[in-house]
């Protein structure tokens, strides 16, 4: 390359990329870029994926298989309990507690029924001891007092059964309020049997004494009038009816209701 005096170079001698101020490594800043080159799309940047090290100390543990979570391996055949994720031991505990609760309720009803049955003979003895006695001499003379004695005997039986029913209903509500439907059923069934036993016990206690005081030639009508027994058969329902009524009032006052088999509380 020739150099002229004054330190200037011949423009014709400068050829190649250095002639227009460009270098082979790109355009010189400030030099306008042709339109063809500026319209070319810029290359897209690929996002770099940062891989987490496999030895990260706080990495979550992989989920356990269904069999280790307390669920059956085939969740499609496990039923609604597996769908909601209920553990199998809890389901077994509930299934075991249901029969135990049913047995406890039935036992409470059976105890109530037996209590009413056992109270029957005691009520009969009380009735025979407190009921007014028939005046045999007045009955033989044809006095009308025999009919008054009959109605008074039935009234005493009804009062004794009513008081016993109130006590039985209160005790059942106090001790077995949450046992559900077996309790009133036991009170009703046991109350009917107890009333029949009370009437039979009182009759056996007093009838022999009254009939023995009659003369041998007494008529059958006189013997029927003098016999000690319950004449109004509807009074046998006083004991169970009063017990169930008091139990219902007790539960209503306490804000609870009877649980029937088809309706769970």
From TrEMBL:
Superkingdom in the source lineage: Bacteria
What ranges does the record list as Low complexity composition bias? Answer: 33-43, 78-89
Signal peptide range in chain numbering: none
Transmembrane regions:
106-129, 155-174, 181-200, 235-260
Keyword Nucleotide-binding present in the record's keywords: the answer is no
Q: Where is the composition biased (Basic and acidic residues)?
A: 1-12, 90-100
Q: Which UniProt keywords apply?
A: Membrane, Transmembrane, Transmembrane helix
Protein name stated in the entry: DUF2567 domain-containing protein
């Amino acid at each position: 390359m020739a150099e002229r005096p004054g330190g200037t170079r011949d423009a014709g001698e400068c050829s190649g990329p250095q002639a227009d101020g460009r270098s082979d490594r790109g355009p010189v800043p400030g030099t306008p870029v042709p339109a063809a080159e500026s319209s070319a799309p810029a290359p897209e940047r690929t996002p770099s994926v940062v891989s987490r090290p496999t030895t990260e100390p706080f990495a979550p543990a992989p989920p356990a298989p269904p069999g280790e979570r307390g669920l059956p391996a085939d969740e499609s055949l496990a039923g609604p309990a597996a769908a909601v994720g209920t553990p199998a031991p809890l389901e077994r505990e509930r299934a075991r507690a249901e029969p135990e609760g049913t047995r406890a309720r039935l036992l409470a009803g059976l105890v109530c029924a037996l209590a009413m049955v056992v109270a029957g003979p005691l009520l009969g003895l009380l009735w025979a001891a407190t009921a007014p006695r028939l005046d045999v001499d007045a009955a033989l003379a044809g006095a009308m007092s025999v009919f008054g004695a009959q109605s008074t005997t039935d009234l005493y039986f009804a009062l004794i059964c009513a008081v016993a029913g109130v006590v039985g209903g209160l005790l059942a509500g106090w001790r077995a309020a949450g046992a559900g439907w077996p309790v009133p059923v036991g009170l009703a069934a046991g109350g009917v049997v107890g009333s029949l036993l009370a009437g039979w016990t009182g009759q056996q206690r007093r009838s022999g004494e009254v009939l023995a005081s009659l003369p041998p030639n007494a008529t059958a009508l006189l013997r029927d009038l003098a016999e000690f027994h319950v004449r109004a058969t509807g009074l046998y329902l006083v004991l169970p009816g009063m017990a169930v009524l008091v139990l219902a009032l007790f539960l209503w006052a306490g804000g609870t209701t009877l649980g029937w088999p088809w309706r769970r509380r």
